[in-house]
Amino acid sequence: MDDTILSLKAQLLEREREIAALKKKLHQVEKGSSILTELQEKVNNLSPLKSNTTLSNNDIMRYSRQLLLPELGVKGQVAMSNISVLVVGCGGLGCPLAQYLAAAGIGRLGLLDYDVVELSNLHRQVLHSELTQGQPKALSAAQAISRLNSMVQCVPYHLKLSRENAIQLIQQYPLINCY
Fold this sequence. Notes:
One of its GO terms (biological process) is tRNA wobble position uridine thiolation. The chain has 179 residues and is α/β, with parallel strands linked by helices. Helix content is 52%, strand content 11%. The chain has one domain (3-45, 83-178): Rossmann fold, CATH 3.40.50.720. It has a four-stranded parallel β-sheet with strand order 3-2-1-4. Strand 1, helix 5 and strand 2 (108-112) form a beta-alpha-beta unit. Helix 5 runs parallel beside helix 6.
């Protein structure tokens, strides 16, 4: 009889751990969903990218090293600030691409991914962290990009690219990279 009670207590303890883990995951998803819903409303009203013709003093300081490159210069940096790029996939290849585009001063960065951040992603998907586990990857990446360069307009899309949404999404971005 004592063995049966101990076995049942162990099973109960295991179930309680599973429930606690599921509650934590649900909380993270709900937290991410509410933020994402708010951002998606902004996306629906996405205005044309504001056209820049000059660089501010902060821009000159931030991009000073790349402004020295004869292939880029001020003219190229201004052009980059007027470009919108859609990155399809915020995983192992999309994360560093988005990170470098934002650091370089791209104007608008659309981030499209339908997956959520998992612990197994963190060693290679550098925009995500332990704190963003359970969040949509597009939202996690957008938050990291905003911390890196607040001048880049980030637009997260937590959805899968499909026939139904492709034209509407792609029309907003002249440059698209899929990973």
